[in-house]
Design brief:
It is built from six helices and eight strands. The protein is elongated, with a radius of gyration of 63 Å. It is an alpha/beta fold. The chain is about 70% helix and about 10% strand.
């Protein structure tokens, strides 16, 4: 009984039972490999299907997330719009409230400005009145300067003019204004003048129209500025005194000579003469100062010119001595003759 068989591949003799086992093992192995390949293909197909499904699910998830994001964005926009609208309304209300506060403050400021301006104008007017009163008292110590009390109709100041012998010569009524010019002031002062029976009325204004500068007589009253006020006061006062003297002369000519003699020998007359002399002396002093200044200037300029002429003469003489042919210059000769010098001669 044959128990072996020769292997067709390697030629080795193998037991039949072992050969059958190997054949069966090879067949089984091959079947398993085929099944494995088949299973691998199935698994690969299932894997691809799963990947596809996963990708689809992922796309769906992304689309769902995108849709959700869009919905959230829309909701946020809506909330933002509502919030912005509400904020705008609140801001509008606050702005309106702020504008109202600003408007109220501006009105208050304007009211305060008007009040301050009125108070300032009143204060400035009082300062000008005090200045006028003090100036009149200083310049005219023999006169009686009276301030019209506040609340009583009339001008600001009444000046009762008296001469050196304390004789009453007349009344000057003063009204001072430190505000924008008003034509109505003239009529008011005329009415005040009638009320107190003043001889002369003067309106002193800081703001004076050009046609009234430095002073002007209009509608029976004098109108002037601060700069010309004192000069006008002296002139009016002198006129009142002269009217008084004339009136007294008509009553008693003997007393006229006495008044004239008294005036010529008075301090007022002497002061006026002294003022005139001082004015002319000041003018002459100014002229003398200018003459001395010009004399010094001319002397200095003359020295400079003389020095220049001397240098020119020397230079020309040197060149003429070197060349021996340089002609004489009449202008140089004339200038030397005028200066009292001998013209330079050639050394050749």
């Amino acid at each position: 009984m044959i128990n072996t068989v020769k292997c067709p591949n390697c030629g080795e003799e193998v037991e039949i039972s072992k050969a059958i086992f190997d054949e069966q093992l090879t067949a089984a192995k091959k079947e398993m490999e085929e099944q494995s390949q088949k299973r691998i293909k199935e698994l690969s197909f299932e894997m691809a299907s799963l990947i596809k499904q996963n990708q689809s699910l992922k796309r769906l998830e992304e689309e769902r997330e995108l849709e959700t994001a869009k919905k959230i964005a829309v909701a946020e926009d809506k909330v933002r719009i509502e919030a912005s609208k509400k904020a705008t309304e609140e801001a509008g209300l606050k702005l309106s409230e702020k504008d109202k506060k600003i408007s109220d403050m501006e009105k208050m400021i304007e009211e305060l400005k008007r009040t301050a301006q009125q108070g300032s104008q009143q204060t400035q007017g009082e300062v000008l009145e005090l200045e006028l009163e003090q100036l009149l008292k200083t310049e005219f110590p023999n006169d009686i300067i009276k301030e019209v009390p506040k609340g009583i109709r009339g001008a600001d100041i009444i000046q009762e003019v008296y001469d050196k012998s304390s004789r009453f010569c007349g009344t000057i009524l003063w009204e001072s204004k430190n505000a924008k010019w008003s034509q109505g002031w003239i009529q008011k002062l005329k009415d005040d003048q009638r009320a107190v029976s003043g001889d002369v009325a003067v309106l002193l204004s800081v703001d004076l129209p050009k046609e009234f500068k430095p002073f002007k007589f209009q509608s029976g009253i004098w109108i002037t500025n601060r700069e010309s006020m004192l000069s006008l006061a002296f002139a009016i006062r002198k006129n009142l005194y002269e009217v008084y003297v004339t009136k007294m002369a008509n009553e008693d000519k003997g007393e006229k000579m006495a008044v004239l003699y008294e005036y010529v020998n008075s301090l007022e007359f002497r002061q006026k003469i002294e003022t005139m002399v001082e004015t002319f002396s000041a003018m002459f002093d100014e002229i003398e100062r200018e003459k001395r200044w010009f004399a010094t200037k001319w002397a200095r300029q003359e020295k400079i010119v003389r020095k220049a002429l001397d240098s020119t003469h020397q230079l020309y003489g040197n060149v003429q001595g070197i060349t021996g042919t340089l002609p004489e210059m009449k202008s140089l000769v004339a200038s030397v003759a005028n200066e009292g010098f001998e013209p330079p001669t050639s050394s050749m």
